[in-house]
């Protein structure tokens, strides 16, 4: 068996590969979104020159520890919380575009076909 | 004697967070042969995820962690791997993803990846920067502080031990960080 000093620096393992492959797409997307939301909020904080404490104060939170949870990339946000955060930081976390007529027409067309 | 040893490894008496560490005694298990390995399935252009292998086992600490907890904590492990891959490929090793200052010394860079809420599978790491982390081992944290659990205590001390070696080696130049700050270069052996 190879000595570790002779091993390839690049290391991969079936254990890690299996775990990455076995995660279902919905759960994977949830994890990705939580991390990216945290990244956006952290970027918003930095661009305002704020620390967690100032965000906590702006939102009348009892403690900045809740902000740490938000930024951990594991927090399951409510829409209320996201709306509050984006308002005080001046960033966009939820993108709500008005429904375009094109989409409405498409829905009507689908209904007509179904009939 | 100690000062002679420190000089022989290139220690200079400049004042820096790293230099404060050299006044600490070396751990007893410093003869375990070990080296850094680059986890290619998790690393990417945002951050490099390293782990450590030892001569006696030849699999990474992260694999040990996975083997030990995959039966009772599969979902947690999946979440951890997915988050590590995100760190490597999408978001980088931003400090907020880690519970910082888990080690005993203020400058040892030992931290833990945040647990998923209501679960407590803790993975200890050394966060060198936004672009390089070294992942170790861990376990379920069902106590207030890791000091209350012998197993977690062992894992944190192990990471403190390796953190110290890595930073000594970075200081003496035998281990280096690449120009783009993304990779370790030089001798990845950590035996000290």
Average per-residue pLDDT of chain B, rounded, comes to 85
Instruction: Please compute the radius of gyration of chain B using only Cα atoms.
Output: 16 Å
Biggest sheet character of chain B:
6 strands, mixed
SSE class of chain A: mainly alpha
Low-confidence stretches of chain B: 1-29
Topology, number of strands of chain B: 8
Number of helical regions of chain A? 6
Order of helices and strands of chain B: HEEHHEEEEHEE
The shape of chain A is elongated
SSE order of chain A in H/E notation?
EHHHHHH
Q: Which geometry of chain B do the CA atoms define?
A: globular
Q: Distance between termini of chain B? A: 17 Å
Q: Give Rg of chain A in angstroms.
A: 22 Å
* Helical percentage of chain B: 25-40%
* % residues in beta strands of chain B: 15-25%
Explain how this protein is built:
The complex is a heterodimer of chains A (115) and B (192). Chain A is an all-alpha fold and 115 residues long. Chain A is built from 6 helices and 1 strand; from the N terminus they run E-H-H-H-H-H-H. The mean pLDDT of chain A is 89. Chain B has helices at residues 2-8, 61-69, 74-91, 150-172; strands spanning 34-39, 48-54, 98-99, 110-113, 121-127, 132-140, 175-177, 184-186. Chain B contains 4 helices and 8 strands. In chain B, a hairpin with a 6-residue loop joins strand 7 (175-177) and strand 8. With 192 residues, chain B is of the alpha+beta class. The interface between A and B is large, with 35 and 43 residues.
């Amino acid at each position: 068996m190879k000595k570790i000093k002779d091993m390839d620096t690049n290391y991969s393992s079936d254990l890690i590969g299996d775990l990455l492959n076995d995660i279902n797409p919905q759960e994977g997307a949830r994890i990705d979104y939580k991390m990216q939301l945290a990244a956006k909020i952290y970027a918003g904080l930095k661009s305002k020159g704020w620390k967690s404490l100032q965000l906590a104060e702006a939102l009348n939170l009892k403690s900045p520890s809740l902000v740490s949870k938000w930024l951990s990339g594991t927090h399951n946000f409510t829409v209320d919380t996201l709306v509050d955060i984006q308002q005080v930081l001046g960033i966009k976390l939820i993108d709500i575009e008005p429904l375009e007529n094109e989409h409405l027409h498409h829905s009507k067309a689908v209904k007509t076909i179904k009939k | 004697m100690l000062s002679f040893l420190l000089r022989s490894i290139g220690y200079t008496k400049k004042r820096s967070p790293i230099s404060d560490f050299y006044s600490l005694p070396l751990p007893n298990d410093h003869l375990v042969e070990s080296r850094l390995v680059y986890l290619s399935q998790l690393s990417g252009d945002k951050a490099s995820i390293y782990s450590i292998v030892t001569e006696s086992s030849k699999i990474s600490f992260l694999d040990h962690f996975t083997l030990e907890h995959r039966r009772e904590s599969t979902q947690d492990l999946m979440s951890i791997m997915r988050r590590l891959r995100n760190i490597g490929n999408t978001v980088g090793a931003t400090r907020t993803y880690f519970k910082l200052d888990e080690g005993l010394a203020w400058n040892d860079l030992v931290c833990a990846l945040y647990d998923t809420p209501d679960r407590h599978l803790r993975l200890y790491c050394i966060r060198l920067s936004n672009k390089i982390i070294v992942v170790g081992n861990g376990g379920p944290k069902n106590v207030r502080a890791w000091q209350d659990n012998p197993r977690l205590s062992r894992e944190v001390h192990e990471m403190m031990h390796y953190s110290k070696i890595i930073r000594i080696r970075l200081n003496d130049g035998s281990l280096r960080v690449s120009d783009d700050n993304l990779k370790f270069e030089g001798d990845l052996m950590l035996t000290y």
